[in-house]
Amino acid sequence: MYVVFPKPLDYALLMRLVEVSGVAGAAAVERNETQWRFTPSQPWRAGDYTLKIDNALEDLAGNRIGRPFDVDTFERVSEHLTSQTTSLPFRVHGN
Question: pLDDT tens, 62-82?
Answer without folding.
Answer: 888 766 555 555 656 555 556
